[in-house]
Design a protein that fits this description.
alpha/beta, Rossmann fold, 6-phosphogluconate dehydrogenase C-terminal fold, four-stranded antiparallel beta sheet, 13 helices, about 45% helix, about 15% strand
Length: about 375
C-alpha cells in the first residue's frame, strides 16, 4: 500500500491483539506514526521502550484527530464508550475499526453514533493462552484469517484500502457482513467452547473423592477440552453479545444429540456408524495448515526409557538445536498416542524440526 510516510495509526487498547498488530505495523511500515492509549501504563511504557509506539495519548483526546486509521482493541463495552469521544475528533476520512470476535453490539453502537461511513469491523482469528502486551508479537496475524466486516454505508474504496493494508501485514482477509460473521463464529468457536466446558464439568461432576477422573483424563480428553481453559470473563461477554446465534446453534446441537441417544437406545448400529463416519470424513477434510479461530497446539510424542536423566537428555538436544520448547509432560494415559513424553511447541515448524532431530538420534517419535 503506497501512502505518505507520515501516515498515522491509533490504537485504543494495547493488549495481545492490539499490541501484536501495532508491532506488525512497525516491522512492515517502520516510518508510520503510531499513537496508543491504554489504561495499563506498563503496556504503554513497554511499547515506547521497544519502539513500537511513537506517541502515548493520555486519553481519547486530540492526539487521535491526526489518525488515518484507529484500531479499537479494548473490551467491546469500553470500545462502545470510546465511540462517543472519537466521533467529535476523528478526521472525516479516518477509517475506524475494531478487533472483537462479536460484531452485533459494536455495530448497533456505530449506527447510533452515525459512524457507519467510517467503520470497518475486523476480527483476526488468532489468540494465545497468554495475554497482555508482553505476550504480543509482530507475527501473530501473519498467515491468519482476518475477517473484514464493513458497514453497509462505508465506501468500497475504503474497504479495498483497508483490506489491502491488512493483507500487507501478512493476514488472509475474508470479507463478511457483520451478521454472517457472528453466525459463523458462533458455530466454529463460541459453541465449541461451551461444549468443551460442559464436557469438563460433566467429568468433574462424576469424579470420586480421590479425583481419579482427573488423574485418568489425559490424551484425547485433554485435547478436545483444551479450550475450556479460556478466560471466563471474556466468554461471559461473548455469550451475552452473540446470544441469538449461540442459542440457535445449541438448540440444533441438542436435537442432534437426542438423535444419537435414540440410536443408542434402539441399538441402531447403522445410524451410530453413520454418525461417526460423517464426523470422521468432515474432520479429516479440514486443512492442517490453516490458522483458525481456535488456537492450535503443535505437539509431538516421544518414547523414552524409564531411567534417570532421560527427559533432561531430550530437552537438552532440543535446546542445543535452538528450538523453542513451549511445554512438556508425561502421558500416563496412552489411549490416543503412543509416545510417553509429550512436547509442545509454539510453532508447527519447531515441532517438525524437533521430530526430525529426535528421529535422527534414534528416538521413536509420533506426530499428530
Amino acid at each position: 500500500m503506497s501512502v505518505s510516510p507520515h501516515f498515522t495509526i491509533g490504537f485504543i487498547g494495547l493488549g495481545l491483539i492490539g499490541g501484536s498488530i501495532a508491532k506488525s505495523i512497525r516491522r512492515i511500515f517502520p516510518d508510520y506514526n503510531i499513537i496508543a492509549y491504554d489504561t495499563d501504563k506498563k503496556a504503554l511504557d513497554a511499547a515506547i521502550a521497544d519502539g513500537t509506539v511513537s506517541t502515548i495519548a493520555s486519553g481519547i483526546n486530540e492526539e487521535f484527530s491526526k489518525c488515518n486509521y484507529i484500531f479499537l482493541c479494548a473490551p467491546v463495552h469500553y470500545n462502545i464508550e470510546y465511540l462517543k469521544a472519537l466521533k467529535s475528533i476523528m478526521m472525516p476520512d479516518c477509517i475506524l475499526t475494531d478487533v472483537g470476535s462479536v460484531k452485533t453490539d459494536i455495530y448497533q453502537a456505530v449506527m447510533e453514533e452515525e459512524l457507519t461511513d467510517s467503520f470497518i469491523g475486523g476480527h483476526p482469528m488468532v489468540g494465545s493462552e497468554r495475554s497482555g502486551y508482553e505476550a504480543a508479537n509482530d507475527h501473530l496475524i501473519e498467515n491468519a484469517y482476518y475477517f473484514i466486516t464493513p458497514s453497509s454505508t462505508v465506501s468500497k474504496d475504503k474497504v479495498e484500502e483497508f483490506t489491502t493494508f491488512i493483507e500487507d501485514l501478512g493476514a488472509i482477509t475474508i470479507v463478511y457482513s457483520p451478521a454472517r460473521h457472528d453466525q459463523t463464529t458462533a458455530y466454529i468457536s463460541h459453541i465449541p467452547h461451551i461444549i468443551a466446558a460442559e464436557l469438563v464439568n460433566l467429568v468433574h461432576n462424576n469424579d470420586d473423592a480421590k479425583g481419579m477422573n482427573k488423574q485418568l483424563a489425559a490424551g484425547g480428553f485433554k485435547d478436545i477440552t483444551r479450550i475450556a481453559s479460556s478466560n471466563p470473563i471474556i466468554w461471559e461477554h461473548i455469550l451475552l453479545s452473540n446470544s441469538g446465534n449461540i442459542v440457535a446453534g445449541l438448540e440444533e446441537y441438542k436435537e442432534d444429540l437426542e438423535t444419537v441417544i435414540q440410536a443408542i437406545h434402539k441399538k441402531d448400529a447403522a445410524a451410530i456408524h453413520d454418525f461417526f463416519l460423517q464426523a470422521q470424513q468432515y474432520r479429516d477434510s479440514i486443512p492442517n495448515n490453516a490458522t483458525g479461530v481456535i488456537r492450535m497446539t503443535y505437539e509431538i510424542f516421544v518414547d523414552i526409557p524409564d531411567e534417570p536423566g532421560a527427559i533432561a537428555k531430550v530437552t537438552a538436544f532440543i535446546s542445543e538445536a535452538s528450538i523453542n520448547l513451549k511445554n512438556l509432560g508425561i502421558s500416563h494415559n496412552r489411549e490416543d498416542e503412543e509416545g510417553v513424553l509429550r512436547l509442545a511447541f509454539y510453532e508447527q515448524s519447531d515441532a517438525a524440526k524437533a521430530a526430525e532431530l529426535l528421529r535422527s538420534l534414534n528416538y521413536t517419535v509420533y506426530e499428530r
